[in-house]
Amino acid sequence: MKKLLALLVVCAWSTTWAQTEVKKITTAQVGEHVGEKVTVCGVVADARYLENSTSKPTFLNFDKPFPNHTFTAVILPSARANFSEPPEKSLKGKNVCVTGTVKINKSRPEIEVTDASQVTVEAAEAPAAPAAPAATTP
User: Fold this and answer.
1) CA–CA separation, 14 vs 86, rounded Å?
2) pLDDT tens-digit profile of 44-103?
3) Torsions phi, psi of 40, nearest 5?
4) Per-residue pLDDT tens digits for 32-51
């Protein structure tokens, strides 16, 4: 009986752990994950805040500027208020990851950002250190 109980606990824990793990993908793969919660990473090529619009969204367009972008993260006004700097300025040109459920809007994949914690900036890889000059013997 104890073995059965232990097995049930392990199975329940495994299922819970598996459900919290979110797959990390590239913008090239995002179209294959519509309806799924994923983390999409890529370079923000273009970013715009439509402050004169009634819904006041901020658009982060990945890989290429609008209208040739491959993926969009739409930051809602409630989430925008939680960014320390305007996201259209602070995220443009950076390698950014966005977590959320992928949907299609106007034939393009997008994630709606409702909380600033869904957006992270990936650290840029440090350039390789220059090689030390070869030692010479006199």
Assistant:
1) 39
2) 999 999 999 999 999 999 999 999 999 999 999 999 999 999 999 999 999 999 999 999
3) -105, 130
4) 999 999 999 999 999 999 99
